[in-house]
Fold Thiamine-phosphate synthase.
Amino acid sequence: MKEFRLYAITAEQFHPNRELIEVMEEAIIGGADIIQLRDKTSGREELLRKAQALRELTRKHGVTFIVNDHIDIALEVDADGIHLGQNDLSLEEARKLVGNKIIGISTHAIEEARLAEAQGADYIGVGPVFRTATKVDVVDPVSVSYVREVAAEIRIPFVAIGGIKLNNVDEVLAAGATRVCAVSEIVGSDDVIGTCRAYLAKLGNKEA
Ligand SMILES: Cc1ncc(COP(=O)(O)OP(=O)(O)O)c(N)n1
Ligand SMILES: Cc1nc(C(=O)O)sc1CCOP(=O)(O)O
Ligand SMILES: [Mg+2]
């Protein structure tokens, strides 16, 4: 997959007075190079409309577009890939459906990371590193020690996620992460472009 560093995920509850596309375009202008549509509340039609708009936006800017949970929608809008959870369909089944599109999968322990790598995931999510209020059914924080384990052993790209803010990202980078995902800190910011640039400034001197 194309290299990435700063992963931004949609979360409209953090910008109730601003349009999804406007906020995500600012994230891209600020330097987010992979965007995920994550939406737990919209019906299928609405989700499809958002996915189409984000596909158009990400194509325009040449950034990677991932859909969370909904493989059918990812295929319908020709997204670059999908993101799976541990309780979603297996990597093997997903691979049959999406062919050579990107498959990312969440992991919360080194055994899950090893399995994801062995089963052909293109990247893994590593988290939640810190406590997060963005995801409701989330497991306990895995802490930076899990980031350290993954950095030492796993060879496919990994992205640290969960409670990562500008004021604690240095700790995550020091543990070996070279890619981070921040949700509320980016899309809930009054200055989305500046926030992304600030993450990138911190990521900039890390080798991916
Ligand atoms: C990059 C990234 N990492 C982890 C997740 C979490 O995905 P999942 O476990 O499927 O949980 P939901 O996001 O569906 O609540 C993610 N979306 N993206
Ligand atoms: C969607 C998601 N997945 C996680 C995981 O650990 O798998 S943590 C998370 C939410 C991250 O949001 P914020 O940056 O606002 O804490
Ligand atoms: Mg999911």
About this structure: Residues 58 and 65 are 6 Å apart (CA to CA). Residues 7, 36, 38, 68-69, 83, 85, 104, 106, 125, 135, 159, 161, 181 surround LCLJCK34 (ligand 1) (CB under 6 Å). The first strand starts at residue 6 and ends at 9.
